[in-house]
Amino acid sequence: MDTSEPTKRTRVRAYAPEFKAKVLAECSQPGASIAKVALAHGLNANMIHTWRRDARGAVAPALAGAGEFVPLQLA
User: Fold this and answer.
1) Which of 53, 50, 30, 27 is nearest to 40 (CA)?
2) How far, rounded to the nearest angstrom, does the alpha carbon of residue 55 sit from its chain's CA centroid?
3) Cα distance between residue 12 and residue 70, in whole Å
4) pLDDT of amino acid 66
5) Which of 27, 54, 64, 65 is the most buried (most CB within 10 A)?
6) Rounded-to-integer distance, Cα 26 and Cα 32, Å
7) Taking CA 53 as the corner, what is the angle to CA 70 and CA 68, rounded to the nearest 5 degrees?
8) CA–CA separation, 32 vs 17, rounded Å?
């Protein structure tokens, strides 16, 4: 017989890409505070930071070789 406590299930919310884009656009406005935007939408600021990091990551592979050294022959 199992006497352990039942595990509490947490629900992971999925947000529409349009909603994420709207929130990120608000955060990119001059003088905008990520914390204030998060509160206005009932979100945690850490979630918005994750969305920003993910959005930058989508662009980063295109620049993958941009910071590498290239051998240069001097005369």
Assistant:
1) 27
2) 6
3) 45
4) 61
5) 27
6) 7
7) 5
8) 21
Distance CA 24, CA 44 (A): 13
Percent of the chain at pLDDT > 90 equals: 52
Q: Which amino acid is at 35?
A: A
State both tokens at 28.
Answer: 């990119």
Distance in angstroms (rounded) separating the CA atoms of residues 57 and 34? 19
The confidence score (pLDDT) of residue 17 equals 92
Give me the chain's average pLDDT, please.
84
pTM of the predicted structure, to 2 decimals: 0.63
Percent of the chain with pLDDT over 70: 79
Reading the block at residue 19, the tokens are 């909603």
